[in-house]
Amino acid sequence: MERFPAWARDALETFRPASAFGKSEPGSEAVSRYNEFVTRITDRWPEINTGVLPSLRDLSDKQKRIVLEQALRCGYTYRESTLKDARAARPELKDLNSNIRRRAENLAKLLRRRRRIIEKGHAGDHEPDLFDMIERAASQYPDWESVLRPELQAFLRIARNQSRSGPNLEDVLDILDESCGPEIISERALDTRQTSPADCVRLVLENVALAKERKGGLIPNEFRLPNSALATLVGVVFDLPAGGITDDAVRKVRERYQPGVTRTTHPPKKS
Question: What share of the chain is helix, strand, coil (3-state, %, to 5)?
């Protein structure tokens, strides 16, 4: 990866597979997929170098990394070959979401009842500590933990010594309940047609918009990749043929695009 600037190498490293829970090494399939992805981006990096990087010149290296990482994430996680299975599994996924929501809600209620009993002094038990769980779970991923250890330990120390009430496991379960609604199922991914280049553009636009929203203003709101640069970036990360998506096609997508709104490129069926 010597051909990449340091911030681009860091963006690609984000996708390096980690060892699964309880395993010492990542799975061979995940490693192979990652290596193939890196090779593809390496081979087509000259296109990004000439067609995209000039449009990032006003961003810091950290901002460039985030923009590239968000675009790469679209191409790395997208696999057309998995869509058939995903479509077939849609009913099961909805059932699982409903089951998870129901169990999360019930477990949160049980934990709150348990807390009230403990707080009355009627039992010598101790309540489960959210921050202990975070620390124990992090220890199962040593590569991940080693990078975050100083910040993680500082956070846990502050969280445990707060005099104010803070989040607990019940709150996490409430969020899990809310997060497993039917709206989390991507209708774009489970549509009955193949994904089009226009969908690829929307995915990148959506991911960059999410970065602006979630990174605390790190990416300037006024930042906007030119149509030509976005066409190049989408073509590389989704491995489309050179010229597979044109500047004009990007312009048309942008005219219709609204962050957070999924649109389809085919007309709806008549009822």
Answer: 65, 0, 35
Residue with tokens 């477990």: 107
Q: What are phi and psi of 243, to 5 degrees?
A: 80, 10
SS in 3 state form for 157-176?
Answer: HHHHCCCCCCCCHHHHHHHH
What tokens were used for 18? 């980690």
The lowest-confidence range among 103-117, 146-160, 177-191, 257-271 is: 257-271
Q: Return the ∠ at Cα 157 (arms to 155 and 161), rounded to 5°.
A: 115
Residue 199 vs residues 107, 191, 208, 222: alpha-carbon distances, Å:
39, 11, 14, 23
Which long-range contacts link 29-34 to residues 24+ away (Cβ below 8 Å)?
A: none
Are the CB atoms for 128 and 153 separated by under 8 Å? no
Read off the tokens for 16: 């390096």
Distance in angstroms (rounded) separating the CA atoms of residues 44 and 5: 14
Read off the pLDDT of residues 43-97 as tens digits, 9 standing for 90 and up: 999 999 999 999 999 999 999 999 999 899 888 876 554 555 666 777 887 888 8
At 127, the amino acid letter reads E
Does residue 206 have a pLDDT over 70?
yes
Task: Judge whether 208 and 71 are in contact, CB under 8 Å.
Answer: yes
204 vs 266, more confident: 204
Per the confidence metrics, is the pTM higher than 0.85? no
